[in-house]
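In this section we turn from sequence analysis to structure. A common task in structural bioinformatics is to predict how a protein folds when a small molecule is present, because the ligand can shape the pocket around it. The inputs are simple: the amino acid sequence and a SMILES string for the ligand, here pyridoxal-5'-phosphate. Study the lines below before reading on.
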Amino acid sequence: MSILSTRVLNMKESATLAMARKSRELKEQGVDIINLSLGEPDFDTPENIKAACKQALDKGDTKYTPVSGTKALREAICRKLKKENNLNYTFDQIVVSNGAKQAISNACMALLDPGDEMLVPSPFWLSYAAIGELAQARVIEVYAGADENFKPSADKLESFITSRTKVILFSSPCNPTGAVYNQQELAAMVEVLKKYPRIHVISDEIYEHINYAGQYSSIAQFDEIKDRTIIVNGFSKAYSMTGWRLGYMAASNEIALACDKIQGQITSGACSFNQAAAIEALDGSQDKVHFMIEKFKSRRELVLNRLKELPGINCPQPDGAFYIFPDVRYYFGKSANGYMIHNSEDMSLYLLEIAHVATVGGKSFGDANCIRISFAASEEMINKAFDRIKAALEQLN
Ligand SMILES: Cc1ncc(COP(=O)(O)O)c(C=O)c1O
């Protein structure tokens, strides 16, 4: 009998972190692993942001901040939302958190009661399910495969709505598929949501800038739904600040206040000097962001070209983020080197053990036919990884 709570016993370990641990263990044994399993840009944080952080530290900016973040940062976020998204928010509608992850968690805790249902278009970022379940909600996956470009239609979403549906949570661009919802698709979703005033949308826009599809659209731009939308965004991806742990939400006053209350009891405000640096990230030069996006763009081309060399692999082109999510079903039932491939988790393990390339099996993202490959790595590493993947797949029969 475990001493641990059923809450934690029922919780699944993050598959991406599990794969990271496994590849670290192999690395420590001296194996030359290429890690394409992680969701973080391989660039350093831009110098101007680091300099702003050092300056804040030197100035003694080392004390507790207001729970929802400094007024200066929240005002900078409002300026960003106006300038880039044409959205009007006041600073008291912004809650700064320890990463977008905490913002999502705050929103779920604020909105969901036990037994409420949360719809998650699937494939989805794996933490959504764990966070929803921690809030004791029923997480309902609305699956759309590669043949639907990984985006369920508004009609399909509506067919899953019940009187208990309280939240729809999705990312656009999507981790793991790279799918981006365009304005027409969002408009169709809004038409459905207009009929269900109880439902709120958590719109995870953390990959907003890593978008190859042109003009970015947020569902909060539809007036009919703005007050029921919680925008989640952050600094990890666009500014390569994963370790700084800084994200935020923009929401109605009622929801922002509720999240301030939750965060105030659990973690308080985010790190003071990181918040000062985040103002520089938003207001300072965006050249480094553009540089990184251009790099991701050319890596995406490279990965799509290299993918063509692998027989039987099917994958829609990702329109955003830095992942591809190929369907690897062609290899199910095949074996080599003492490994039999039954599903995507077996494939991911096979690639780790035989090709020494770390990827993530798709099961915990809601699709056990696919694996997630990150292209947040140098072109040299991507080429080396695909040479190895190709050789390992060729052995399977
Ligand atoms: C879709 C999505 N949302 C949120 C996050 C978490 O971001 P943060 O580092 O700001 O917590 C990630 C990180 O991988 C992500 O992929």
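DSSP finds 14 helices and 14 strands in the chain. As an exercise, try to locate the residues that line the pyridoxal-5'-phosphate site and compare them with your own expectations.
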